[in-house]
Amino acid sequence: MEENQKFSIIARLKSFKYAFNGLKLFFINEHNARIHFIAAVLAIALAVYLQLSPLEWVAILAVISAVFVAEILNSSIEKLADVVAPEIHPKIKMVKDLAAGAVLVTALLALATGALIFLPKLF
C-alpha cells in the first residue's frame, strides 16, 4: 500500500482472498500438506477424545500451526528458488535443504509435544 493511500477496511478484507488462495494452492499442490493435515486431524480427534486441558490444547494447536507455517515457508522458498535458478546450483540446494530442515525440526517438536501430552493419558 502506498503511503498516500487512505486506510480502507474493504481493501484489507479483500486482501484476505490472497491468503486463502495461498492456502488452497498449498493443499492442492503440496503432498506434504495433505500428510500434515491428516496428522493434524488425528491429533485433534485424539485431543477431543482425551479431553485435554486448555493449556494442553494450546500446546497441540501451537505445534500443529508451527508445522503448517514451516511447510508453507519451505514450499515458498522452494518455488522461489526454482524460478531464480532452474538449473541445479549448490547454493540453491543448500537453501532448499535448510528450509526442509526447518520443517523437520518443527515436525519433531510437534511429535515430542504430542508424545508428552498423549502418551501418559493413553497408558
UniProtKB/TrEMBL annotation:
Similarity comment: family membership: Belongs to the bacterial diacylglycerol kinase family.
InterPro entries hit by this protein: DAGK (IPR000829), DAGK_sf (IPR036945), UDPK (IPR033717)
Keyword NAD set for record: no
One Pfam family from the record: DAGK_prokar
CDD domains per the UniProt record, alphabetical: UDPK_IM_like
Annotated TM spans: 33-52, 58-77, 98-119
Organism of provenance: Pedobacter rhodius
Protein's name according to its UniProt entry: Diacylglycerol kinase family protein
